[in-house]
Model the fold of this input.
Amino acid sequence: MKPNTPHKGRGAVSNRDGRYNAVQHHAVDDGWADVDPEPAPRTQVSLETPRTLIARNQSPDIPFEQSINAYRGCEHGCAYCYARPTHAYLGLSPGLDFETKLTAKPEAARLLRRELQRPGYRCSPIALGANTDPYQPIERRYRITRRILEVLSEFNHPLTITTKSALVERDLDILTPMAEKNLVQVQLSITTLKPEIARKLEPRTSAPRRRLQAVTNLRDAGIPVRVMVAPVIPVLTDPELESILQASAEAGAVSAAYMLVRLPLEVAELFEEWLHAHFPLQADHVLNRIRDVRGGRANDPRFGHRLRGEGIFAELIAKRFRIAARRFQLDADAPPLTTALFRGQPVQMALF
Done:
């Protein structure tokens, strides 16, 4: 195959080896790629049954204590995805493997029920979509997220959902009654309003206009929606910051937040490859601006800095966001979800 060749419907343009692999492979062009092109990579799904489902978070700059990921890897294929390096733990590539070799957890609902029934369980909102999208395309077939929602609804357990997909509308029959009890909030991530960028940047997500329609449909169903302008990519998408906030307000969002792009571990080289493949004239400008807000590096993992960056450009982004959010009345925090309605169901031994 030709090195760094974009594939239709895929984000990464290479399948570089993960950091734990014993050897590193490099694609070279031997001249035959145009004559006998390699077929487009197909999505493969394997199944796993983990011992536990709920992950606990101790990061001080993340606003939740618990999260659930129904899938490993994400078919959405976002070029910037900070979760890509997790595929290296599986011996797979954070590149194309991350978006084509996926793992589903079909027993997730059963595991969740068991964990919620434990006598010592302490209720706090569970985040769906903290790592990989709960409504990525394979959810249409596996419906794992929906079964998780059914269990959380049964237990009156609060949750937040973060997604780039309008597929969340499918579960309005569960989410609407939960919203009436102040048990759910949805965060729709909107990175750009330009289809020509979104198609390359986030190839299998819902189109920007469709996500805005989902904001309206959720609002009409009584579900509070926060728009995440995430990530803000300097030069490439940051000029749209105010436009995204205005469109989100008009669609019915109640609040908004943003995060600057961060490129941990293998994501840095994968994103650089993607930029040079799709936006070669802007690539160096984008990368240099990212380094400006990350202390001269591609990524700054320090708590308090990794989501916002530092320096003059990062401060400018923050100021622009505050002004626009206030202007479009998206600067209010959503009310906290209630935990008072949670009803645990401890397992009891049969009397006879």
Summary: The longest strand covers residues 225-232.
